[in-house]
Specification:
β3 and β4 form a beta hairpin. The protein is globular and about 45 Å long. The protein is an alpha+beta fold. The chain has an eight-stranded mixed beta sheet with strand order 2-3-4-1-5-6-7-8. 16% of the residues lie in helices and 33% in strands.
Length: 146
């Protein structure tokens, strides 16, 4: 039974098979998707593509008892560096805006973590994540990093 997950938005679409191989090696956990099933997998990766904003959404769900040994901020930074693109994820624990669903932590390819606010100018029937580039600022509260 899947019980824990991490969500990331990538600012470009990457090859699904290569992504699964990268995640499996990086996390040292076998991963699968609907297109690439693995009966030995301990993690399932759901992928959604969007027309606007960050075009690729990945959610990694893994079984209770599986220890990834890394946190989502570490993985966001690694994905950003590996794919040379921005990767949005949840703000770190302890951040004052952590509970605000419109505030995001964004890992940049250079290793910096910034915070950005969702662009809410046109939200009707919109799917995907569109961030306001004018809201970008260096992340000030990082909390505990792996």
């Amino acid at each position: 039974m899947l019980s824990t997950d991490m969500q990331f938005y990538l600012n470009k679409v990457v090859d699904e098979y290569e992504l699964i191989q990268f995640l499996s090696q990086t996390l040292d956990v076998r991963c699968e998707t609907l297109n690439y099933p693995d009966s030995q997998a301990e993690a399932f990766v759901m992928i959604n593509d969007y027309e606007i904003g960050f075009p690729m959404d990945i959610t990694i769900s893994y079984t209770k008892g599986v220890s990834l040994g890394k946190d989502y901020l570490w993985l966001a930074k690694l994905l950003a560096r590996h794919y040379q693109t921005m990767v949005a994820t949840d703000l770190p624990e302890g951040h004052p805006d952590k509970m605000n669903p419109y505030c995001w932590c964004v890992a940049e390819p250079n290793g910096y973590l910034v915070e950005m606010v969702e662009d809410l100018s046109d939200v009707e029937d919109r799917k995907g994540l569109l961030l306001n580039s004018d809201s970008k600022k260096l992340l000030t509260t990082v909390g505990k990093l792996a």
